[in-house]
Amino acid sequence: MSRSYGFFLFFFVFSVAAHAMQISFPSWGFFTDLPEEYELADGDMKSTYSFASPAGATVSIRAYPAGAYQSAEALAAAIQKQFNNTGETDVFEYRNRKAVILELAFSLGNAAIKGFGLCLELEGKGGPGTPFLLVLAYGDAAGGDLTTLHLSCLDSIAPDAGSLHAPGPVTVYSFPRGEQKTAALAGGVGEAAFFEHDAEAAQFVVDREDLVLRRYAQTPLWKEAWARFYRTIYRDSFERIQNAAFILERLWNVPAPGNRGLASAALAWVQGFQYERDIEGSDFVNLVSAAIEGRGDCDSRALLWAVILEQAGVPAGIMVSAEYSHAMGIVDADGEGARFSLDGKDWLVAETTARVDIGLIGQSMSDSNKWLGITFE
Questions:
Q1: In which residue ranges of the chain is pLDDT below 70?
Q2: Interacting residues of 31 by C-beta distance below 8 A, sequence separation 6+
Q3: What are the structural domains, with CATH classification, of the chain?
Q4: Cα(134)–Cα(91) distance, rounded to whole angstroms?
Q5: So what's the pLDDT on residue 6?
Q6: Alpha-carbon span 55 to 186, nearest angstrom
């Protein structure tokens, strides 16, 4: 995204909030965040749910009560047999839970079905044994390659609320965290702990979700899709940069009343990054690489800034504009500065690509109707 200068203070009202398709299943404790094209198509709304896409993709979800199966492997074996599935299965661990990923390859009538599935332990809801979750993302193989869409759907599964701030199951399967190591943070401000595959995994999520986002560029759902793109990266990155956020907060040691001091310190840090765009790629530097290498476009910096503040318990988010090709941060903080209203709150804005104080915004970008606000909690 490009930058614009000539900054001033003003107040404007922002009223168009992004509508999410993040769904909670409170009876079972799990969550999904499917791409916007999926609509609820079938199910008893108690333990079975089916979502369909106009592209011919389907996501089928079924929760099994404790005692229905002895293990995730047993559930996967039952699915293999039920569908006469010839695809392979693999067992892995997701957040101390046993899980199985399935490659789906079976026939349904005259159609050859391709896709992926996930069997995952859920937290117990009373009674002996363990409840399980089955999620199948699939489509007619003759309808085109829907692999990216299927993987995005499965990776959006969060078996509990804590998983909403951790990498998704497909990403963990594809990129096991590996050994923990330390790396110097941008600007020589100290070192923080990361896992050896964090940057690679985070970029995998960015690139995959960029392909999903492109599906909606010329559709009425582009705002919702844009919000989901950032929401997915936020979820994947939150835990990966947790130690970095802690180190930075301790370094800055700002007794900031009204959250403004910490927000300003974090803003000054990301403003010092090297401005970088990938015209041919996703145009977004993953947050791990951004924090270590000190580089990124406006939305990479704004999202990294927001995650750091959220880690410290400071409500923050981002605002993005297609018309201005720009992104900025927003924070719930006191004091003078440009603000806009979102979700009943007046947020202070933060420009991350120019060395200006918090609360300043370019005069040429002051039309509130051209901004989309995105929060994460």
A1: 1-21, 124-128, 256-258, 277-282
A2: 22, 23, 24, 25, 156, 157, 158, 161, 163, 164
A3: 7-18+186-375 (3.10.620), 35-155 (3.40.1000.10)
A4: 14
A5: 41
A6: 42
